[in-house]
């Protein structure tokens, strides 16, 4: 698979950094669906294995489990899965940096307090 213009590591990194900042500044408080997706992926990360496209897709399926999740978060996770489907791009310095930022975001969301719903 070729990396499309939509799945550029620099954009994924920037999107992840923006969501990290929004969360840290209190501009965005993750809801239950955001946290469920993050916790599912955080559980994969705790195994010590690298994040994979299959893990992301598994966490986002069925769609009902993440219904109501932040659209930017879902777009970021789908983009990250696409990046991980392109090993050459994912293994590049920029690709690894992008995935690292996504993992930092997942850690922050999984460990955050749930928003009052």
UniProtKB/TrEMBL annotation:
Tell me where on the tree of life, at the top rank, the source sits.
Bacteria
What's this protein's name? Uncharacterized protein
The organism of origin for this protein: Streptomyces piniterrae
The beginning of the lineage is: Bacteria, Bacillati, Actinomycetota, Actinomycetes, Kitasatosporales
């Amino acid at each position: 698979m070729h990396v499309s213009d939509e799945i550029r590591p620099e954009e994924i990194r920037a999107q992840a950094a923006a969501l990290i900042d929004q969360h840290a500044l209190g501009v965005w408080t993750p809801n239950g669906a955001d946290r469920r997706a993050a916790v599912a992926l955080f559980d994969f990360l705790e195994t010590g294995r690298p994040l994979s496209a299959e893990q992301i897709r598994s966490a986002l399926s069925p769609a009902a489990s993440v219904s109501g999740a932040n659209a930017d978060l879902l777009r970021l996770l789908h983009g990250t899965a696409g990046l991980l489907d392109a090993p050459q791009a994912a293994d590049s310095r920029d690709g690894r940096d992008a995935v690292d930022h996504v993992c930092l975001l997942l850690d922050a969301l999984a460990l955050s307090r749930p928003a009052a719903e």
